[in-house]
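Notebook entry, structure prediction.
Reason for the run: the old model in the group folder had no record of what sequence produced it. Starting over properly, with the input documented here first.
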Amino acid sequence: MVDPLDPGTLALPLTFKRSRGRPRKADALSAAERARRYRARKKALTEHVVPASLYARVLQERDAAKAEVDRLRTDLEQLLGQLGR
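New structure, fully documented this time:
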């Protein structure tokens, strides 16, 4: 601040020049921490792979359940026909 009564004071430039680019975050991760998290994510994704034999067994069980539902529906339709509905 310039004192109007004192001729020896100078106006100081109060502006500062920002550095280029995006400002740094206070909680930014280091390169090693980012790499560690990346490897952990990749490892977690590979652990969810289902073996082909288990997948085939589940498909067989699903098909058997669908066949059972179809058989029960036809039985129900026959019984409803016998009741006259």
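Summary: Helices lie at 31-46, 52-83.
The old model has been moved to the deprecated folder.
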